Each structure stands twice: as C-alpha cells, then as structure tokens.
Please model this.
Amino acid sequence: MEPGSDDFLPPPECPVFEPSWAEFRDPLGYIAKIRPIAEKSGICKIRPPADWQPPFAVEVDNFRFTPRIQRLNELEAQTRVKLNYLDQIAKFWEIQGSSLKIPNVERRILDLYSLSKIVVEEGGYEAICKDRRWARVAQRLNYPPGKNIGSLLRSHYERIVYPYEMYQSGANLVQCNTRPFDNEEKDKEYKPHSIPLRQSVQPSKFNSYGRRAKRLQPDIESYVCRMCSRGDEDDKLLLCDGCDDNYHIFCLLPPLPEIPKGVWRCPKCVMAECKRPPEAFGFEQATREYTLQSFGEMADSFKADYFNMPVHMVPTELVEKEFWRLVNSIEEDVTVEYGADIHSKEFGSGFPVSDSKRHLTPEEEEYATSGWNLNVMPVLEQSVLCHINADISGMKVPWLYVGMVFSAFCWHIEDHWSYSINYLHWGEPKTWYGVPSLAAEHLEEVMKKLTPELFDSQPDLLHQLVTLMNPNTLMSHGVPVVRTNQCAGEFVITFPRAYHSGFNQGYNFAEAVNFCTADWLPAGRQCIEHYRRLRRYCVFSHEELICKMAACPEKLDLNLAAAVHKEMFIMVQEERRLRKALLEKGVTEAEREAFELLPDDERQCIKCKTTCFLSALACYDCPDGLVCLSHINDLCKCSSSRQYLRYRYTLDELPAMLHKLKVRAESFDTWANKVRVALEVEDGRKRSLEELRALESEARERRFPNSELLQRLKNCLSEAEACVSRALGLVSGQEAGPHRVAGLQMTLAELRAFLDQMNNLPCAMHQIGDVKGILEQVEAYQAEAREALASLPSSPGLLQSLLERGQQLGVEVPEAQQLQRQVEQAQWLDEVKRTLAPSARRGTLAVMRGLLVAGASVAPSPAVDKARAELQELLTIAERWEEKAHLCLEARQKHPPATLEAIIREAENIPVHLPNIQALKEALAKARAWIADVDEIQNGDHYPCLDDLEGLVAVGRDLPVGLEELRQLELQVLTAHSWREKASKTFLKKNSCYTLLEVLCPCADAGSDSTKRSRWMEKELGLYKSDTELLGLSAQDLRDPGSVIVAFKEGEQKEKEGILQLRRTNSAKPSPLASSTTASSATSICVCGQVPAGVGALQCDLCQDWFHGRCVSVPRLLSSPRPNPTSSPLLAWWEWDTKFLCPLCMRSRRPRLETILALLVALQRLPVRLPEGEALQCLTERAISWQGRARQALASEDVTALLGRLAELRQRLQTEPRPEEPSACPSAPASDPLGEGSGKNTPKVQGLLENGDSVTSSEKAALEEGSGKRDLEMLSSLLPQLSGPALELPEATRAPLEELMMEGDLLEVTLDENHSIWQLLQAGQSPDLERIRTLLELEKAERHGSRARGRALERRRRRKVDRGGEGDDPAREELEPKRVRSSGPEAEEAQEEEELEEETGGEGPPTSLPTTGSPSTQENQNGLEPAPEATSGPLAPFSTLTPQLHLPSPPQPPQQQL
Model:
C-alpha cells in the first residue's frame, strides 16, 4: 500500500553529537571517534559549540544563479512510472483522435497503472472475466467491498486500458470504441506530463485537407488499401499521416463511419509510437536568473501562500507530510526551484577563505583556517583527498545550495562512496533521510523491484540524483531509514556508501563537500569494482591515488600509512595476477606510460570506463582505444602479437614502494620501545633531558599519532622542565634575598615534596643537589627559631634579625610566622605610643581606626589590650564631637557665632584631627568676615548698591551660622526688588524684549537704523541682554551716581543727533506707496523682515521709516473723542488719532509724569541704590525740562493766536447740529462732517453704550460693532471731501514746534503738551489721506476678524453664568491682575480672549494685532496703563515674522511682541 499524506510515519531520528571545544578542534579525529556509532545509521548530525559562528562570506550583491526546476510528483520513482504509463495511454488515445479522461471511482481518481498491473498479475483480462474476479481486483486496489465496484472497474478497463494493451501486444484486430470518452462528462481530462523530451510525438502540422492532398498524388500504388489490397471506393480510402499507407474506413477494426478530421495514424504507426522507449529523465534549468534576495522573496511568498500562514509558523511535521503527499500525487503538479550544485570557486564560499582577493579580519582569519571550514576539511593532513592535485568540484571544492520549500535532493550515494559534510549557513531547516551502507544494496534491490521500468531504461538511475522513494515504502520492505532536521549552524555527515535524500523546509543556504579518511580506502576500492560492473566513469583514479601516497610515505599520517600499505598490498597482488594472465594470453610487448600525464578520457577502458593507471592493454593497429587488464579480451580482434602492455611501474618497483610504506607504518613500534625503556628505567639508567627531548622530536618529525605513550613522554618532559625551572627559581631566590619576587616562596613541606618529586622522575637532573642544600639550611634555621621563641620575651633586635634571615631562605618556615607576629606586636605598640604622644602631630580619625583594626590582628598581650582600650575611648569621644559639629553644619536651625565658638573651644582639647570641627572653624571665620563686610558697606558714603547687597545675602545664606544682619539685608533687597518690579510694570510692556534700564536710558545708537533694528531683533531672540552697554558704563561705574548722570546727559545728546541722522536717511528712502517702488539697499524693511510696499504701509512719525500696518500697533480713528452724541463723529480732522510711532521708537508704555513722580517718591525711601532709580531721576529731569520748554512755546503770542483759531473751529463743529438728510449737507468737511447712514440711531446707540447696566456685554459688543461699522463706512465715503490746511502755520513757528515734537517723541513719558503740539502741527498741513485710508482699511479688517472671536467669548460668558456666576465672584476679581480690572470692558474682553486661547490650546479663531493710539489718548482713559487697544487686522501677517524670530505663533498684543 502506498503511503498517503495522513499516514506518513516519520522514521526514527539519526544520532546527534555535540562535541566539546577540545574535541571540536580535531575535525577528522572527532569524526573517527563517533564513526562506530554514527556509521550504523548512515548519517549523523553535529552541533558545534554555541560560540562557533562563522561569518557569512558570500558577496550577496554579486551572487547570481539559475536554479533547477523540480516537479515534485516526477521525483518519486513509483509516481514517475505511473505518469509515464498515463502519458503513453494519453498518447495512444490522442493518435486515435480522442483525449484521455481519467474516471473517478469512489471520489478518487482511478489508478490506471495499478489497475493494468493487477490485471496482468491476476492472469489477464480474459482470465479475470472468465473467473469473475473483478471484485478481487477492486479489493487489491483498496476499494471497499459490496458496492459492485468490480463491474465498474471492468467497464473502465475495457473502455480505456484494454485497447491500449491490445495495441501493445500487436493484436490490433480487437473490437474497440474509437470514441470511448464522448459521454463521460464527469471524468477528468488528463493532460500529459511536461517532462522534457518525454512526448516525442509532436502534433502534426497538416490538417484534414492535407491528407486529401496527399491522396491526389500520381502514385497509383498509394491508392490501394493495405487490408483488402483493393483501390475501389476511392472516397472511403483513408491516408495515414505517419506512413502514407491507405485503408478503407470499413476495413479497419473497428470500422469508421466516416473520414475522421484532424491527424489520423494507422494501427501499425500507433503500435510503433507507443512502444518507443522513454527518454532519460533529468532536471531542466530555469530560465530566470536570481539573486539571493529575489530568490528569497519568491521562496517565502510561495510558502506563505501555499500554507496560508507566515513562513516561520509552519510546523516542520506539516511540511514533511505535505511533501510526501505531493510526491505521491498523480493529479497535483507542484513545481519548485532549487539552486543546487553551485560552484563555490566561481560564486564564492559561504566560509571565509584565505586568498589575495580581500583582507580578512582576525575573526574571519580564525574561521578561514578552521578544520570545519568546508574549504579546509578535504585537504587536511589526515585526509586522503589532499594528495589529489586537481580541484575536483563538489569533492575537494564545496558546492553551494540555495533551497526553497519542497525543493529536494533525491536518493544517492557520494562519488567514490566518499564521506560528505553539509553545513547549513542560515535559513529554515533541511530534512534528511539516511540509509546505512550495510543496507545500500537492499535499497537498490527494493527500488528496482518496485520500479523496474525506470531501471530498464536507466541502469545507473540512482547515480543521477533524480529519483525519490517514500521512506515508509522502503521501511515496509525492510530497509532501515533514519531522519533528522538540520537547523542553521549545524553539520550533517554522511558515511561511505550511505544512501541519503531529503528536502528543504523553506528558504535556506547550505554548503557541502566530500572528504576521505584512512578508513575509507577499502570502500573506495570496492566502489571502483562497483563502477566497473555498472560501466560508470570514475571521478579520479583510485590506483593513482594509492600510488601517489605510497611514493611519499614520510608525508603520511601513521594511521594513513598503515591503511595505504594494506591497500597497496592488495593492489600489487591483483596486478601480479592480471599481468600473469596477460602473459599467458601471449602479449609480450610492453611500454612504460606516465598515465598521470594523460587526460582521463584518453586512459579509460573502452569496456568498463575505468580510469587506468597501473597498466592497460593497447593495440598497435587500433590506437584509438585501450582496456584495463580485467577486460583484455574486449580490446579488439587483432592478434596478440599486435597488442602490448602499457604500464606505470614494473613488478619490481611496486614491492619497493610497499616496503617503504611498511617501514613508515612500523617505525612507530621501534620508537615506542625506546620510549617505554626510558620512562620505566628498565635498564636502571635515568635518561637526561636532552635524550627525552630527542625522542619527542622524533615523534613530531615522523608525525606519529598522539598515542598514550607519546602523551606520557610529553608529561614527563613537562614535569621535569617544570622541576628544573622551579629549582633554578629557588636558588636564584636565595641569591636575591629580600629583593626576590613575592609569591614565589614554598613551604617546608612543599620543599620536601618537591625533592621527592625530582628523585622519582625518570630523568637525571643535577639541580637535585642544590635543592638538598637548601633543605639543610632551612632545617638548621628552624631549630634556631624554635629556641628563640621558647625564651620569650627575647630582644626585639634578635627577633628581627632572625626574621630577616628566614626571609632570605626563600622557604616559608612555620616558626618564621610566629616570629613575624611578635615583631608586628612590638611595632604596633610603638606606633600607638608615638600617635598618642602630646608632642606628636594630631592623627586623623582614619589613623585611629586603622590602629584599632591593626591591633586586632597582632598577637594578644596585656600591653596590647590596654593600648586598644585607650584608642577606643579616644575614638569614641572624637566621633561624638565630630557628630555634634556635623549637626551644626547641616542643621536647618543655624546657631549664633557664640555657640559655635564654645563648641570649637571644647573640641580643641581632643588630640585628634577632626574635619567637621575644622570646617566649623572655617565657617565661623567666614561669618566674622561677612559681618565686617556688612558693617563696612552700611557705613559708607553712599547707600549700598543692590548688586553688592545681593552678593552679601547669597554668601550669608550659604554660611551655616545664624546672622542677625542677614534678615535686615534680605528685607532691603526685597524692598528694592519690589520697587524695580513696580517700575517695570509701569514702563515695560508685557513680555517686553527690553530691560527697565534700557527703556529709561536714552537710545544712544538711534542714528543707525541697521544697528537699532538688529539689536531689536537680537533682543527678540534673547541674544542681547546687556543693561549698561547703551550708557558705556561698567558694573563698577554704576555704583557712582555721578558717572550715571554724566553718561545719561551724553546719551541724550547722542540720541538727538542719531534720530536726526536717521530721519534724514529714512526720508530719502522711496515711499512704498509709490507704484515704482523696488527693493534696494536703501529700501525700508519692516519688523517682519520684508519690504513694505503698496497699500497698508505706514511711516513712523519719529524715525520716518516705513512698516506694514498689519505688523505693528496702529492708532484707531474711532477712538477719537466725541463731545456729545449729536456732534459730528469726524470732529476736526487734525484731532483724529493718526499719529504712528513704530515699535523701534516707542519702547515702553510711556506712563504719565505724575506716575513717575510717585515712583521717585518711593525710591527716596529705599536705603539701596539702583541704576534704574538714577536713570529714572535723569529721565524725569529731562521730561520736566522738555515740559517747561513746551509750555513756554505754547504760551508764545503766535502760538496762542493759532490755538485760539483752532478752538473756534472746534467749537463751531461741536455746536453745529447734524443734518437729517445727506442731500442737504454742504460739500465742505468742516461744515458737513457727517455722512449718510449715521441718522437718528446714533443717540440711541450712544445712550445704550453709556448705560452699561441695562444691556449685556454681548449686546454692547453688537451695538458697538454696528455703530463702528457705520462710522467706518461713513468715514470712508467722506475722505475725498477732506481738504486743508486748517491753519496757516508760518515756518518760523513750525520749525521750533517740530523740533520740540521730535524731542518729546524721544521721551518714554506721556505729556499733554506733546499732544497739543501734534494737533497744532497737523492743522497746519493738508490731511494725510493715504494714512487715513490705510488706518480705515486696517480697522475694517480687524473688526471683521474679531467678529467670530466675540461670539466665542459670549459662549464662554454664558458657560460661566451657567456654572453659578463665577464671573461676578468678588474674590476672583480681587485676584485678577490690576491691568484687567482697571482697563474697562474692552480689557476684560481681551482677558477673556486670552483665557479662551489657553483653554482651546491656541486653536480658536485667529486674533488680530492690537493697535496703539496716541499717548495722550491712552493716558486719558487708563492712567498708568495703556488704553484698551483694538486690533488692527487678522493674525495672518505674523507668519512672515515668526520664522525670523523663531518664536511660536499664538497671537499677542504689540506690547508683548515689541
């Protein structure tokens, strides 16, 4: 019964060996050691030590190969026989004009081959039908009984097989159906297997018309029917496409009803075609070339798809069962590819190889020389193949194998029945099956018995590596089979004539090679005889190999020499016999021939294909061939006198070679006898070291095996040399005396044992006398030391001298240790006495502890005990005071200096150096120095500087001493910091990039636009933080008030000169509003880093530079004051808030002068000097001075008259009622400032806005938004009607005012006179329509962008109300920042916007950049704080500034940005 996939039983496992490192170092020796066990299984597995992991040396990128194609069910011998049979039947029915369809019986395909074979075995078709034994046939085919399957099988046999069998036997007159498959729809159509060259019958290129054309040829003989020999009824005459014979369709059996279409062959041609012998079977090469990566991807993809799971999760048992199921299957055709027999010499070995191609690392060098490297193992010294000069690929040079799942290697034995070794470098396992050599012939007999058809056509089939057979089938016939799974990093060894096969579990890479040892030689000779019977070519000449080794016996390993001698003896005897037979035949002529110089194909026996070496028979008349002496009758038919012997050696030379081998093999025995006599002192004479070394050198030179006797000799030599070295060391140690190397002394017992060891060695050494002399000296010293110890207490000097004499001996004497302890005791007591002496330097605690520890190891005595007690008491007291000092140093509650002084005073009485007490003393000294520094700085001519006080506070806090002055200093520093923080809040904008001192000081480099701008950018980036650089003062200069004042005055002048220079420079730059503006070196650059151009650019009124309106804070037109609800929203255009100062000019909040005076009053109360305070005083004096000059200018007669005219114009505009209809309005802006759309709703809206209690904040915002939108639209519509100037301002008046205006804009202080001068200058010139339009556009964009933000804020307020009115919590309001509480509803709204952004993570509606109005407008609304600033537009313009500053992009008000 054939095994199926479900009943495949894995064979037993082969032996597995795990050598130790010592065993692993000798590969062939270890294989010889395990051979008695492993040879019984045929194969074995070896696991190297875990840390033996050779690197993979193949160049993966350059490795390309073409694999073989394997169709699995063609590999198995029995399955291939069945497929061949089915191909022949299919070919038969194809010739008959039908395609073969294999029927299904009991839900499985009918095995037509087995059916045919069983019918023949049961006596044939007629006998079975006669005896009605079809049920037995069904039973033998393993069909269940009782289902009338026998009749069904008979029907199928008659229909499909019987006609073919009749044609095969030549009985072609049997009635058969020429269309047996026409009605069998359920049968499976058989497609012939695509084995190369198997189907030799190719489809005819001629159709039915071609057949008729042949019949019209003029040859009259072709019209005669071969059956009836008549040529009548020409229309029913049929022409064979194979032989051109003619047949009547009614003369054929069975007769044909009509002329068939397509190709038709006569019965004679059909029989000839079906009886054609099959072609030899072999593997095809794939058409695609692979790299390792592409082959691996294909292999893994195939396996994953086939098993429908990741490749590493497929069990090996499942793959094994599936493999044998596919191999045995007829209907399933699975094709795989196998990269087999890839030459490592061409593609590179997987092991590192020592050659000149590339440099090897030390690790690679180690593996390149290892005996387990498959490039090294065949040529090891103990290997036979190292004596073959040629590089035999696959035997001496490894082959590489790249496998995929199901790729297989078929049953085979190695060439010349040699050993083989296979190493799996990496990848999935390789499954092996092995049969021992004893069962090799049994396996061959079973395979020939089961598949005789294959061996009839290929007698050497098993040597072609193309045939598998199920291991269960072999085991069922008594063949012993073992298996194993070879994993990555493991070796598999196959033994001589051990059949083996297997398959790969998946993608892997293996390497294999052959090797031969001495024990292989008999098997190699038997293999040559086997090859001679099979007429198979040899890979190399066995005789030549034996003779080559015999020619140089001294190079052979001893065991190999013995084995070669045995083989050579057998070979010489056989050669004598063969030459004698040749002489008896009458061949007397002979010629010497150097066969090793001839190519193998010129010295092969024409009969048995054996490669000749010792001799061959040739003929003078037939020079093309020769025969071995075993086939002298098969050379030619010429006379014996024309034949002659070609020989390599004469019969006299061969015994001489044999004798040399014998001498080499027996030389070991002679040497062994000499060694045995020397080691056992049989003749009573001890050999010298030189004689023993000579024996060892002889063994090494003659390469004797590592026997037990040689090991004994080596051990004896090693021991003797060690004794000599030790004796010399003992003598030299005595001579060195106290300077000898420590650790080389031996005890007295060891010295006596050493002397006995030297006496017992079978070696004569003259150093024995020296050792005896040393032993006598030591024994005399021992007696003297005993006498001294017995008379204790002896003199310390006597003990010390005895101890020094003992140390010079170089041998440890027990009494010397006692002497040492007595000396150590005296030395210890002396050390304690010196340490505790009053005049001695105080020792440390470590010294005291060391003395105590040393005292524990000295010999006990009353004096030692007393000294140890004193030391322990002193150490305890010292440690207590050290702990107390440590607590004082580490305690949180610091002690006053008086307490620390008392502790230090008491600790001074202890005669021990105490580190903590010393640290406490140093801390107290530092505290006194600190107090002196405080007194000095407090009593100086000036108030102390804040920096000095902060330094003192930092030092005082680090001191472990309680200082009363420290609290007073901390309070002064805290007060100074509080004032500075208050001043910073007053002046600095939120997140300002300037320090308070920089804001208070004049901008001395104002004249350089690039310097000013780059410094501002550096501040934004946090790269520039110097407080005093602008004044040119060092830290020491800041301590002198006079230096600060002088520097401030100089800075004022530099600032004024610089701003004038900057204004001239910037005024010369092209206006961005001009259409022809282009970027150049003299072009303005905005704070965002871009060139401002087109609509939306604003010019700073101070520095005259241009900026994007969306990048800076701009004034709001709608924030201009309106006296009453009925007045014009435009008022006088010269009073509109259009003044713009850039962020580089306006660096602070610019508080009012009254606020600054309050800060100065607080500064006067500080007992500390701050640079900022002195700078503030200078700024205040500068502001008051400017205010006085401004008031004087405003009070002049000319200016007073101009101000009066402006007041009249303002009064007229305020008292003039607004017209109801826009059509009645004059065109002049002064008389008709109102435009269409402001109507009668304005008073109502204004009233609602004033009554904040009657509407909600959302309603206020809605009303303000509606009113503001209408005002902006109305302002935009009336811009073309504006004209000016309103006043005629003489140049004599204008110039001083403009200079005052510029100086006032430089002040970081808000003054009302500045605003008055600004309005007067505005009225004296035409309205700046471009700026007004720009401001209107920016305000419109801001209001549009803030609408969504207002809705989000309203939803937030509602949530607060729903949570319980958290917004009205007075405690919460008290905790809010002062800026939020004091800034009115708009500031509250801004605060809520910030909170909303924090809640939403900065992802809320985009906010806009706030704007800044004129300083006077801000101060009128908010006092110290800036006015609630509206936004100027969406945040989008910030995207251009952010990448330059490397800052995050959440929206911030301008005081945070600038």
The first strand starts at residue 16 and ends at 17. Residues 1329-1362 form the longest helix (34 residues). The mean pLDDT is 76. The radius of gyration is 59 Å.
